[in-house]
Write a structure and sequence with these properties.
Layout (H helix, E strand, L loop, with lengths): L10 E2 L19 E2 L7 E6 L5 H8 L13 E3 L5 E3 L5 E2 L11 E6 L10 H16 L10 E3 L20 H12 L1
Parallel strand pairs: 1-5, 3-7, 3-8, 4-7
Antiparallel strand pairs: 2-6, 4-5
Length: 179
């Protein structure tokens, strides 16, 4: 069971990722800054890549440029959790607007084509349970969602036949950890 005292180990790679200090409005000052208690949801994504560095390089050029990678946390296929952004940065990621109040969690890979590894699903469930139990955030378990819950997209891939419809498996493990 995950408790409020439980911590997840994040390998912090923020200072190694490409960034952009010359973004168009409204990003010219970087991502919107929010307080931790303003974080009310967690959104899962699939990254379509296995490299957070390549993904960051893509996003700092996309559409005139973004400040950095749009995933606060990145979960590798081996289950390693990488911290790619500051928790207070409300990055654009799930089509809920510039003043985003959801934690962005990217699962490495093309997960609409391939099922996440067991280690990756276990780590994703542990991150979600940790976020729900984290007293600094205001995330309820019904606010643990996927990108496709907000807009018409295949992301995070969990409803794709090719990847084995893995949403239920992930959410069942989140609920197990929270019970």
């Amino acid at each position: 069971m995950i408790s409020q005292e439980t911590s997840i180990h994040f390998e912090d790679i923020r200072c190694t990722l490409p960034t952009n200090d010359d973004c168009p409005a409204p990003l010219q000052a970087g991502w919107w800054r929010r307080e931790l208690e303003d974080i009310v949801g967690l959104t899962f994504h699939h990254t379509l890549s296995y490299s957070p560095w390549a993904t960051a390089a893509h996003y700092i050029r996309k559409g005139g440029g973004r400040p950095s990678i749009p995933y606060t946390l990145w979960i590798c296929g081996c289950g390693m959790v990488l911290q790619c952004g500051n928790f207070r940065d409300g990055c654009w990621h799930d089509h809920t607007g510039h003043r985003n109040v959801h934690l962005s969690v990217g699962l490495a890979g093309t997960l609409h084509k391939y099922r996440p590894t067991v280690a990756q699903l276990d780590a994703a469930a542990a991150v979600a349970a940790w976020a729900v139990c984290n007293p600094d955030f205001n995330i309820s378990r019904d606010q643990v969602r996927g990108h496709s819950d907000y807009t018409a997209t295949i992301c995070p891939g969990w409803e794709a036949r090719a990847s084995g419809y893995w949403r239920h498996d992930l959410m069942a493990e989140v609920l197990r950890l929270l019970s």
